[in-house]
Amino acid sequence: MRTASMIHVTGEQQQLALPGTLWPAGCDRGQGDPLFFGKISKDQANDLITSFGHPLGEFDRPFGFQAWGLAIDGQAAAVAVSGSTVGATSAGYQREQVVDLARIARHLDHPGILRVMLRLWRDYLGPRWDYWDAPVVAAVSYALPGKEGNLYRFDGWKFYGYCKPWAGGGTWSKPSKANRMDDGVKKLYYYEYPSAARDLATLLAVAG
Prior knowledge:
Blueprint: E1 6-10, E2 15-19, E3 35-40, H1 42-52, E4 65-72, E5 75-83, E6 89-90, E7 93-94, E8 98-106, H2 113-125, E9 138-143, H3 150-153, E10 158-163, E11 186-192, H4 195-207
Parallel strand pairs: 8-9
Antiparallel strand pairs: 1-2, 3-4, 4-5, 5-8, 6-7, 9-11, 10-11
């Protein structure tokens, strides 16, 4: 079994070394709480994505993102990254209408936490996407080649269709690692937010 990496956490009055976990400097919660959420930086999210062995590796899109970590008993258990879509449209929506669940991963010791993290992201974290001026109307995500996407189907997401992975282009993007997985074809899923969820996102944005 793979040994979790040690990541140092430095606070204003403390320095901790916890297996596979990382929270922002100065955070005085999370180490003793049985369940703790925190908003984390891109670097911190990528440390967890790498530690958890996500097959696509680090999130490296140069535009909008939000990252969230979930800790259980002081150990990072899951990470989710919201991002702008690569394409101008996704699942029939314009880029400015959706938020992409670009990465979701878990610690090896918490096999059941991924469904929990997905539901929490879908209902509470995804709608907090504030990169666009208006609340998003839907969330999108992809099942990797060779995967059926049951994680999404069983969580109420709808299957939109098949798509070849991003082949690269422009000034920043390289061909996707998904090109080399199975047949290279991903499955696109989407979840349309009810109007009540969009209203909540608007209120949260106003409240800061």
